[in-house]
Protein 1
Amino acid sequence: MTTHPPIHLDHAATSWPKAPGVVDAMARWYDELGVSADRGDSEASRSVADAVDAVRSKLARRLGMSPARCAFTSGATESINLFLRGFLRPGDRVVTTAIEHSALARPLVALCSEAGIGTVTVECDGAGAVDAQHVVEASRSTRPRLIALSHASNVTGAIVDVAPIVAAARELEARVLLDASQTVGAIDVDLGADAIAGSAHKSLLGPPGLGFLAVRDGLEITPHKLGGTGSARPSDAQPPHWPAAFEAGTPNTPAILGLGAALDWLAAHDAAAARRRALEAIDELRAALRRRPGVRCLGPEHGDLRLPILSFTADDLDPAEIGALCDLAGLRVRSGFHCAPWIHRALGTEAMGTVRVSPGPFVTADEVLRVASVLVRA
Ligand SMILES: Cc1ncc(COP(=O)(O)O)c(C=O)c1O
């Protein structure tokens, strides 16, 4: 086992290290504040409430949404569940895609049997790329009430060109739910979707256990997680107003403050340059991996519609074996299906999944390339 610190190449699962300032902001809550917003009479509680609102505003600005309609959740999974269950009605039709994460696929499939929701799933190509035009065509023929899709594949990094889908949805009077878990913090997600769900702990470089759901003014959804919101009046009914209606239970205040620090750091740094550097590293890795016989690299190779995520397989080694070899070499990659149940049909990786390499902004190209040397030695 190596004694060097691990090189984290699993940014698509969760980013590490976090943005500078995140740990200090969280520690400050544990060391000095210790209270929740709107729960308590102390000066600290009031100042935490102000700090949480400030983070909400910064986040909403990045999403192009109103802060008043941006709720903090435990993660994108909760956000997507809240939206699907709060928006869909029995018999509704939904257009979705084959790249979806289980966070969207599972609640949608459950709603199909529970509420007779009908879904049309738009296939992706062998690189995991979804053609926006195919989503538009499926929507024109299906006339769905909702188009629910991921902004990018967490398996191959292929980004979906959302603008034409949003334009078609407007014309068809359908709503768009965008799962921006992989993209928020890395690229612009302010693309006119009606609802955006995402995580704090991936490209936003914030803590785990925190996400958000932002919904456009005028689009009403029913709260499905009911409970305490710290509201002033005694009532056994969920308050109807945003964001309280969707924030039942004690919030993850230290994580929200940590996200605030991450948003500040991101605002002061060039995410586009970081993505370009990481994509160059991925391209070098792809070229190096291809020199080894039997390696198959998956995902888009050119163009701007891609995140720095590379999935690959090898003829003579299981993804899990490669993952274990990387671990021995101090490299954290991820093997398997990456919680994306449908995409592996198109990739031809249904049997064992892939090895996924996803560098964040704090690793160098040389560190990413070490994955190839592990395979050369194997
Ligand atoms: C595309 C996508 N959607 C949703 C999720 C779930 O996010 P969270 O862990 O915040 O619930 C992930 C996490 O891997 C993801 O990659």
Protein 2
Amino acid sequence: MTWDLIGHDWAVQLLRGHIQNNSLRQAYLITGPRGVGKRDLALRFVQSLTCPGAATSADPCLSCPTCLQVGRMEHPDLFPVLLEEGSKQIKIDQIRDLIHSLALSPYQATRRFGLLFDFEQANPSTQNALLKTLEEPPEPVVLILTAVSSDVLLETITSRCEVIKLNPVPLEQTSRGLEELHGIPAEQARLLAHISGGKPVLALAYHRDPALLERRKNLLDEHMEILRANSVERFAYADRTSKDPGKIEDLLDVWVTLWHDILIQSGKSAVPLQNIDRGDEIELILEKVDFRTARSAVDLFRRAHQLLGENANLKLTLEDLLLQLPTLTA
Ligand SMILES: [Zn+2]
């Protein structure tokens, strides 16, 4: 496992190649679902470009002061732009500050780095503020953006970046990585690989924070209740939950995994279940729904996700989703 990451070997090889062949791009966009490891890849790339031990190999040592500083995002030539605490969007002033900082010459490294994480959280005018810098970045600067997908950013932004699209890592490889790199016992590693859907950073978050696992369990329990509930109860649930916007995103992410499993199972596919600890409930739902229903359910979740990305009304979007999900009656 190169760069001590789980999966994404091709992306590591590509970036190492850019370093070794002296063919660095000035802007990269790393895309992929939450928890797949976009930020870790970006930081490893910066470590490979700054670690004194990586000069010829393009492999950072991950233990020298420079690697540790970069890992903590506290290196003097590294400028992260992240969603500020309590804020819903990346602010245009954050971009202006970044542009100002990048214009100065490097302090310690040979170049400066602008990291723009979860850039889908910047609205179009904030994204536009970065455009001129993307077109003509000051020398020597490397910009690294991350986003859930390139579709959610302005085309003018994505077209100026080398796009690196990260997919979930095969479950077997995720499980092995959790064992070998993080010392997680085999059985637990297998469970985490499955329930994270091959998203190693999410798997590790589940491992380190039992409260997250508990949250997933509760969300899946609530979903089973919803499927048995009538429309009045579903309306009430939407009303309660819409007061907790943070929960809705988690809920969509977790619930859809169940429907992916149902869809796959109803198509008699040999693909392993993501929710391997919920096999009985999946069987139960499969007795009541067919392939077409499962496929429409997955589509409903996609649509809800898209609407929320477009800032649609939370309560209406959730009501719409809940009322269209099938009902499991006894
Ligand atoms: Zn190092």
